[in-house]
Design brief:
CATH superfamily: NAD(P)-binding Rossmann-like Domain
CATH class: Alpha Beta
Distance between the termini: 26 Å
Shape: globular
Strand order of the largest sheet: 3-2-1-4-5-6-7
Strand content: 15-25%
Largest sheet: 7 strands, parallel
Helix content: 40-55%
Length: 214
């Protein structure tokens, strides 16, 4: 399941895992864009199903997660990919903007993990991935909200990873330090490949929690 489906990393990850036979479940706010992604993936022979929901709407998002967790108790991979981007200096950012961004950048990831965690724990297997950002390490002064969110999300990944490892749940992040652009070292398909490499780490003693791409 890809939460925060977009034309960059999201679509690349969907294609990479779809080529391996995965049925892709996609969540994002824009139903029209989701429909176009379904068509693109179908053209490549990849089966995908989309669900339109606003991640910043905690009530609606939580309800959708509960429904999907009940429908898909055997979900193998949960990938949280959203990123809210509202440039502002820390001395100037408005609290409602910050709170909304945090819902997307970190709270939504926690809610998603909590929704699918019980089933993964019960069967002793599962994978939870997050797309991280370099602002977690180096916080540009005009990207205060994004930096706070990515830093909090990175901490969430490491705490979940410690909880999940003895349960058979692999939690990891690919932290992308720079702009994502095709035909560069941070191209979406290269990032997707890193997630695939994380997924194929079979033995728990070799599980990687974070891959940093610069």
């Amino acid at each position: 399941m890809l939460i925060g489906m977009g034309p960059g990393i999201g679509l690349a990850v969907a294609r990479r895992f779809g080529r391996e036979g995965f049925h892709i479940l996609m969540l994002a706010r824009d139903a029209e864009k989701l429909s176009s992604f379904e068509k693109e993936l179908a053209y490549d022979g990849i089966h995908a199903t989309s669900y339109a929901v606003d991640i910043a709407n905690e009530a609606a998002f939580t309800t959708k997660l509960i429904d999907l967790a009940a429908e898909h108790p055997d979900l193998d991979i949960l990938h949280y990919n959203p990123s809210a981007y509202n440039p502002a200096k820390p001395s100037e950012i408005k609290l409602p903007v910050l709170m909304s961004d945090l819902k997307v950048n970190v709270v939504g990831g926690l809610l998603a993990a909590q929704a699918f965690w019980p089933a993964m724990r019960e069967r002793g297997h599962g994978v939870v991935f997050f797309t991280g950002g370099g602002s977690a390490f180096k916080a540009p002064p005009d990207l205060a909200s994004l930096a706070l969110g990515k830093a909090a999300m990175r901490s969430l990944v490491f705490t979940l990873a410690q909880e999940g490892k003895p349960l058979g749940i692999h939690v990891g992040t690919v932290t992308v330090c720079g702009p994502v652009k095709p035909n560069t070292k941070l191209a979406p398909d290269l990032i997707a490949e890193k997630f695939w490499e994380l997924y194929t780490q079979k033995a728990s003693d070799s599980w990687t929690t974070e891959v940093i791409m610069e």
